[in-house]
Amino acid sequence: MRRVVTSLSRFLLLTVALPATAQQSGDFTYASDGTSITITRYTGNGGFVTIPDTIEGLPVTNIGERAFLFCPYITQLTLPDSITSIGTKAFELANLLSMTIPDTVTSIGFEAFSYCRTLGTVTIGNGVTNIGDWAFDTCTSLTNLTIGDSVTDIGEVAFYGCTGLPRVIIPDSVTRVRSSAFSHCASLTTVTIGNGVTNIGGSAFSYCTSLTNIMIPSSVTGIGSSAFSHCASLINITISKSVTSIGDEAFFWCTNLTAIEVDALNPSYSSVDGVLFNKNQTVLVTCPGGRAGDYAVPSTVSSLGREAFALCTRLTHVSIPDHVTDIGYGVFGGCYSLANVTIPNHVTSLGESAFADCYSLTSITIPNSVTNIGPWAFQSCIGLLSLTVPDGVTGIGRGALYRCLSLTNVVIGHGVRFIDEDTFYYCTNLTGVFFTGNAPGTYPAFGGGTNTIVFYLPGTTGWGPTFGGRPTALWALPNPVVLTTAPSFGVRTNRFGFIISWATNASVVVEACTDLALPEWSPVGTNALVEGWSYFSDPEWANYANRFYRIRSP
Predict the structure, then answer these.
(1) Do 65 and 89 contact (CB within 8 A), yes or no?
(2) CA dihedral 319, 324, 326, 330 (to 10 degrees)
(3) Do 418 and 442 form a contact (C-beta atoms < 8 A)?
């Protein structure tokens, strides 16, 4: 309700601001403030149109909001030197072939020429200081662009989707290229960035799929998130000494980028063998997407940046040094050829989408140090055959193994307390999930035509005839084991006890000794494993300073 009132209030204010009666001169409706004229609407038949420099003796200074909106029959337009501003959506959807904006114009408004799909040539005069947001959005025929040397700001999405534009020269007067300013300019091969630019906005040149090389001038201090993402033809990029900030995914999906070079005097970043690091090389920021073969992360590195290796589609093996403790969001996502990764024993977390879409990964060893497997961690690892989740892991995130089409079995460590939804969804060849501990909590984890059986150890608790919608069955082990995580493990009512799990109706002998250096094992009990398990309790344990146990079949 509050939004409706606000919108209505804005509408009323706009309505009150318009003149009570429109005035007409030839093919133009206009408004006058007594000193200058604003063209408010064109009413003629199109073709070649010339806007007069005066009406009733007053200078025509403004092209008003929506004045030529959706005038598809206008092909050529001449602006007089009296014009100083071009308003919001002034020529949107017009069929203009070319446009010369005189030096007297100082600003080009929001969406002023957007969707002028026949516009081939644009010359922006030397008086313009600001090119508004979306000003030339989706001018798909634009092939020639001249930006005047007074422009200081190129607005958001200003030339987005100008798919025919082959080159751009950004003059030295420009200080900021805003978000998505040249995004989706698919024919853009050459960009000259002026020496006044200090900031390249997020996605500024994203999806410029023909762009091959770019040099960042020394004036630039910040490169926004996804600034050059999906520039599939980009081979080399040079970062100047002044850049102190590079956003996430700045070079994401640049699959032919073989090297990111950094000026040696840069205080924040460095490059080694074409890979981007922070200055002291403790953080690997980005591996260029065109990197191929094996890669060993330098021993100085203790942290891998967000999506550090994402879409390095030609990498086959990566080794990681021992100081790394976290493999975060999307670090290896989309590494299609990655067949092997060495995860060090100090890693504690596998983040969201850490190995998503690693199609060639057939096996991976998760070290015992890992305590968390994030959402979608192994999503669409279609070659992965089996996986063991170590005992230290307490939770498995949503969709962690989603669409692992070749996965046949998974062993879940006894520390897992929760399995989120869709974890095994579309694992169409998964026949068994084997739990070594008690039943964890879960959302619907299975689906997509799986025929999985959930196996659990005799003596563990919380199991019913189904788990997560799949049938359950006892897991018959080849050898007896002690369930050290069961609630009954340890001292209970002045006795030491534990559950022995193995096979139904088998018998197990428990032996004890007091010195492992010179062991003399003596039997202290024989247990029949009814339904595959039995609880052993030793009332004599308190009589010894040390008491050790082992189990064997009779």
Answers:
(1) yes
(2) -40
(3) yes
Give the C-alpha separation, 324 to 307, whole Å: 15
Give the neighbor-by-neighbor strand order of the sheet with 275-278. Answer: 269-272, 275-278, 283-286, 303-304
Instruction: State the pLDDT confidence band at 21, using cuts at 50, 70 and 90.
Output: low
Beta bridge partners of 284: 277, 304
**DSSP 8-state symbol, 439:** P
- Domain containing residue 520: CATH number: 2.60.40
Tokens 């050898």 -> residue: 479
Q: Which of 304, 394, 386, 404 is nearest to 344 (CA)?
A: 304
Q: What is the pLDDT of residue 477?
A: 87
Nearest Cα residue to 46 out of 101, 91, 112: 91
Answer yes or no: is 502 within a domain: yes
Q: Are 157 and 183 in contact (CB under 8 A)?
A: yes
Token code pair at residue 58: 């007053």
Given a cut of 50, whether residue 1 has pLDDT beyond it is: no
Q: Are 322 and 347 in contact (CB under 8 A)?
A: no
Residue 496 structural domain: 481-552
- Percentages helix, strand, coil for the chain, rounded to the nearest 5? 5, 30, 65
pTM of the model: 0.84
Rg for the chain, CA atoms, rounded: 34
Q: Which two tokens stand for residue 154?
A: 């190129």
For 444, the 3-state DSSP assignment is coil
Question: Taking Cα atoms as reference points, which of 447, 389, 380 lies closest to residue 418?
Answer: 389
Contact 168, 142 (CB under 8 A): no
Cβ atoms of 300 and 281 closer than 8 Å: yes
User: Total structural domains in the chain?
Assistant: 1
Instruction: Please check whether residue 498 lies inside any domain of the structure.
Output: yes
- What end-to-end distance do the CA atoms of the chain give, in Å? 78
Residue 50's alpha-carbon distances to 29, 31, 90, 102, in angstroms, are 14, 18, 15, 13
Please enumerate in sequence order all residues whose Cβ is within 8 A of that of 297, keeping only pairs 6 or more positions apart, or say none: 284, 304, 318, 319, 320, 321, 324
Assigned token pair, 382: 């279609």
CB burial of 173-196 (b: ≥16 within 10 Å; e: otherwise) equals bbebbbbbbbbbbebbeebebbeb
pLDDT in tens, 443-491: 889 988 778 999 999 999 999 999 998 999 999 888 899 998 777 888 8
In a domain, 471, yes or no: no
Contact yes or no for 448/469 (Cβ under 8 A): no
pLDDT of residue 43: 93
The amino acid at 444:
P
- Nearest CA among 398, 394, 467, 399 for reference residue 427: 399
* Count of positions (residues) in the chain: 554
- Could you read off the pLDDT of 120-149 as tens digits, one per residue? 999 999 999 999 999 999 999 999 999 999
In the chain, the amino acid numbered 349 is S
Q: Is residue 467 part of a domain?
A: no
- Check pLDDT > 50 for residue 60: yes
Q: Model confidence over 209-228: pLDDT tens digits?
A: 999 988 899 999 999 999 99
Asked if residues 361 and 337 have their Cβ atoms less than 8 Å apart, the reply is: no
